[in-house]
Amino acid sequence: MSAMQSKRLPGNPTAQAASFKTTKAALIEKFNAIGKIDTFMRALARTADHALLNAWHLCQLPPSFVLTAVGGFGRGELAPHSDLDILILLPAEPDANLTAKLESFIGMAWDLGLEISSSVRTIAQCIEAASQDITVQTALLEARRIGGDLALFSQFISCFNQALDTRAFFQAKLLEMQQRHAKFQDSPYSLEPNCKESPGGLRDLQLILWLTRTAGFGHSWHELELGGQLTVREARELRRNELFLKTLRARLHILAGRRQDVIAFDFQTQLAESFGYRATPAKRASEQMMRRYYWAAKAVTQLTTILLQTIEAHFFPETSGITHRLSERFAEKQGMIEILQDDLYQREPDAIFETFLLCERTPGVKGLSTRTLRALYNARNVMNQEWRRSPQNRQHFLEILQLSQNSTESSGTAHALGLMNQTSVLGRYLLSFWRIVGQMQHDLYHAYTVDQHILMVLRNLHRFGVAEHAHEYPFCSQLMMNFEQPWVLMIAALFHDIAKGRGGDHSILGMAETQRFCREHKLAAADAHLIVWLVEHHLTMSRVAQKQDTSDAHVVKRFADQVQTERQLTALYLLTVADIRGTSPKVWNAWKGKLLEDLYRLTLNTLGGMQPNTHSALALRKEQALVLLQQHLIPAGASQAFWEQLDIAYFLRHDAPDIAWQTHALYLYLETPQPIVRARRSPLGEGVQVLVYMKDQADLFAGICSYFDRHALSVLDARIHTTRHGYALDSFFVTHAYYSLDDNPHRAANETLHDYDEITARIERQLALHLAAAKPLRSPSPGRLSRQSRTFPSTPRVNLRADERGQYYILSLSANDRPGLLYAIAYILAAHQISLHAARINTLGERVEDMFLLAGAKLANHRQQIQLETELLRAIAV
User: Fold this and answer.
1) pLDDT digits over 224-261, tens only?
2) Which of 29, 232, 572, 802 is most buried, by the most CB atoms less than 10 A from its CB?
3) How does the average pLDDT of the chain come out, rounded?
């Protein structure tokens, strides 16, 4: 049985309700005076237990039933206005008489003032519900008997533990956490954070204890310290921050008089004063308290990362080893940078920046290992003035910023700087940045602290140059592709708000910080001038576009006189778009985008029109492709109609020879009703490149992959596009799967050109027929791992989240490669009726790093997202 309807029991529970209300009020008053949060929350739970038991006995429920607290209530603690999650455990389905009593009990609980969320189930129903819903499973994990049959409760605990798949539970909770964090932009630094659900909040701490409990490590931070999973310092930090977050949430509930987990502006001042903070001439009381909150959330985030890696290594020991060695000092460990000696940073402080350079340069790396994170914390003493002034460190930091111009296949500068901020390295190197960590912004449009806003702007600039995000803001992507030395934009973004909170004009104050940075890091005069100019004028374009009449030629002329050159105009436009998008997910809209783009184009015309930039990567790529087409006697202008159907992402992903080959193959078949398949020997040597062009349709990608799977062709690389007029334009690099399995490239090396001619002709003929037939998809077969993959398995990862505009969902996958892997993924996507707009399939040795741009109604549903991710994890697991 699920939650039941309430039915009032004859009689008047008013006296009991008044008693419960009086007791609760007394507990709140005592908490306000003494402030002991654990004592307070346990006392509230005991008071609720007592009231529920009274109702239980008054309703004369049979002794064979069990009244059970689950979820947070099951932990024996209660926030002032939290729901009470209860389970009524039955030995069998109730008859009509017992059902009436159960309904009366639920009604009386509400009459007593208890805001309960109830379910009524047998043991079998509990196990079934837990297997279908991770939320139910998590709530039952913390089941606590309040009253009723002890034997039945013990039987339930035994059956539940026996049915619990701890590895699957870990993976499901990890996926659930990713989804929850994505709702908050993966940031704890919102100006109105949710102290329970935001990253670094109470839910993350609860998650860790759920997982350590199922891993057998313990139920508390002290037990984890005794077991060696936490150091003494880490356990102390977790306990201290947990107490702060619990206290903050309880006081927030009391102030609001209801359940209130969002630290809204309305409550921040009163909340701060309840902690004893008082306003000063420099800082509001709320700013002081919120800064304490952000440091707590930051610590929780970092320690959660450490513990999740420890728990994952316990559940998946076969994929917890070092993937490969990077240097004498570093290795990659399952997508994390691992130091090889604990005292590395103490002995060689220059290795600190090398860590983050490796994060940028190493494909597939997502973060830092537990060992590295702990070593960085312990190296705080070496991050001193001498370290900051080291020429080598200054050069390394500059390399981190400059690498962004070539980082479309790696995580990028924004990710590296985010890790540096998380580990406090960035603030220890740039002391001016340290001053803005957790700095509030009191205005109507910023949603993040100053430091997080800066990191969001850096991320936005990086995404302008990444093909997988080119659909979000194609005009910005086109401009970024043509912009020389885009790293100057990254430095300008890093400094544009760095002087906030000091009083005065932060743009002018920021100029001085920027000039000093450029001088100390020996930047060329022209680059330094542009960076400083951008910091000074980073608000100018937004003000002109939104507050002045740009239809007035004099307004545009004045703005053109300020920007002076096309390069400065483009730089300011890109920084302005990234800046506005980084203020809040709700601030940017199509109207603001049009105002800025209109001003950009009007100003460009005033400056003399866009000048051809023959040095830009995009212009060179197109020009080289046209030269190659002319060599094949393709008439001038023949490519224009075809190219007009291709977006900027296409030209970002393909080099000139590839563009020329595809154009040559397809320009005559722009709106063909039949599948067009072309194949050639891979320009890279081994294998075949296959081109597929046809009207897009459901399951097309899966259909292509099924052909490759059936013919033992392993996909090394794939680039999937949908043209503007609705045609699929997909390119694959394939080789025979058995080459990889046998680790014997001898056969491939001895293929003759005639053999390749025969192979490509066969693929063109067979695949075109296969697609035209449109047969139902067959079930994928499990592929066999290569010897290297069996020796060095990788932990499978799945991440699914909405893109910036909510137009598509971005699915990222990493796993050991094996024959049929891509078809297994495509088959699941097809089964969930999910369409593919674009994809990047990337094979890095024995590991794949794939990204898909998806659309489908099911993706908007939280539970169906979890189900999809879980199925994908099973499919890609070793």
Assistant:
1) 999 999 999 999 999 999 999 999 999 999 999 999 99
2) 572
3) 89
Amino acid at 645: Q
Q: Are 839 and 720 in contact (CB under 8 A)?
A: yes
Give, to the nearest 10 degrees, the angle between helix 474-482 and helix 566-581: 140
DSSP letters spanning 425-475: HHHHH-HHHHTTTT----SSS--B-HHHHHHHHHHHHHHHT-GGGTTTSHH
pLDDT of 784 > 90? The answer is: no
- The side-by-side arrangement of strands in the sheet containing 116-122 is 116-122, 84-90, 66-69, 144-148
Segment 107-135, tens digit of pLDDT: 899 988 888 999 999 999 999 999 999 99
- The encoded tokens of residue 174 equal 């990890």
- Any residues with CB less than 8 A from the CB of 305 and at least 6 apart, and which? 367, 370, 373
Stretch (H or E) spanning 357: helix 351-361
Question: Of the ranges 67-76, 341-350, 584-593, 670-679, which one carries the lowest mean pLDDT score?
Answer: 584-593
Q: Convert the pLDDT of each residue in 559-614 to its tens digit.
A: 999 999 999 999 999 999 999 998 876 777 777 888 899 999 999 999 986 555 54
Integer CA distances (angstroms), 283 to 84, 333, 433, 503, 510, in order:
39, 43, 18, 11, 20
Q: How many CA atoms lie within 13 A of 236 on its CB side?
A: 3
Closest CA to 297 of 186, 172, 443, 170: 186
Q: Are 191 and 448 in contact (CB under 8 A)?
A: yes
Q: What whole-number distance in Å separates Cα of residue 767 and Cα of residue 710? A: 11
What amino acid is encoded at 435 in this protein? Answer: R
Question: Between 372 and 717, where is the model more confident?
Answer: 372
Tokens of 129: 């519900």
Residues 6+ apart with CB under 8 A from 657: 624, 625, 628, 683
β-pairing verdict for 336-339 and 367-368: parallel
Residues making up the chain, counted from first to last:
878
**pTM for the model:** 0.82
Classify burial at 555, counting beta carbons within 10 Å of its beta carbon; exposed 0-12, middle 13-18, buried 19 or more: middle
Determine the 3-state secondary structure of 148 from DSSP. Answer: strand
Closest by Cα among 305, 282, 303, 283 to 292: 283
**By three-state DSSP, how is residue 143 classified?**
coil
Angle separating helix axes 540-547 and 566-581, nearest 10 degrees:
80
Query: 682: which residues sit within 8 A by CB, 6+ positions away?
Result: 688, 689, 733
